[in-house]
Amino acid sequence: MIGFENAPAATLPPENPSIVERMAETMRDMRAAGMTVTARALAVYGDYADADIERHGEEAAALARARAVRRLA
Asked: Rounded distance, CA 11 to CA 15, Å?
C-alpha cells in the first residue's frame, strides 16, 4: 500500500523583513540571475540608497552567503 505524508509546514517570512534581510534576498536574486553583485548594481536593481548599502551591505552579504544553496556535482 502506498502511504502519503504531509510536507512540513513552510515557515513564512516575517511580515516586515529588516533592510538587511531584504538586501540579502536581493543579492541572492541577482546572483541567481547571473548578475555580479556590486554596490552600484544593488542600488539600481534593489533601489537601495548608497547610505543603506554602505551601512548594511557587509551584513547582508554575509546573510546571503549563509542562505545560499550550493549544489555539488
From this structure: 12
- pTM for this entry: 0.73
- From residue 27, alpha-carbon distances to 3, 12, 54, 73 in Å are 40, 20, 14, 24
Residues in the chain: 73
In terms of Cα–Cα distance, which of 36, 29, 72, 37 is closest to 57? 37
* Domain range for 23: 19-67
Q: What's the number of domains the chain is made of?
A: 1
User: Has residue 8 been placed in a domain?
Assistant: no
Share of residues in the chain with pLDDT > 70 (%):
77
